[in-house]
Amino acid sequence: MKKVIIEINMVRTNPAEYARRFLVPLRSYYRNRVLQYPGEIAIQTSEGIRALDECIKELQVKKLLPSLSPKKGLTLAARDHVKDQAITGAIGHTGSDKSTIFDRLNRYGKWNISAGENINYGNKDARRIVTTLLIDDSVTSRGHRINLLNSNFKFVGVSVVAHKIYGHMCVMDFAGSYQ
Q1: CA dihedral of residues 34, 36, 41, 44 (deg, nearest 10)
Q2: Alpha carbon 137 to its chain's center
Q3: Cα–Cα dist 93/119, whole Å
Q4: Whether this model's pTM surpasses 0.85
């Protein structure tokens, strides 16, 4: 969890440097729409290198943002969702009890200003989690990238656990204010 927050804050506090150090080198792992990290099984992407290049370009001009501070209530809300889906093997932002992110956040405190949630399946490495969400292949809104770079967000809670189907999952809950 802590490593994921550190990785998010590396992107936020110096987006251009993050792109240069960690995203530009990924270009060599793409062959058209196939992404293959060294020694791993190839992944068929939807957009391929185009999504990566778009992300790099955006980060190169993005203003510096303040770091996100961890908040216990956000972490507990994220933990609830990963624990639920780890057991059920489900995916998505709705819990098996039909809870939404806002329901889960309100269990542990009160959010204000704005709130959002990112979920990543299949990765346990902090950098891989964050870079995958930044690139946001096949997500036309680029909502995960938007959340990571949202200047309204000041706080974050993260939970990473084993997932029944995808091996691992990570939930990041964000808020502009949280009491």
Answers
A1: -20
A2: 12
A3: 8
A4: yes
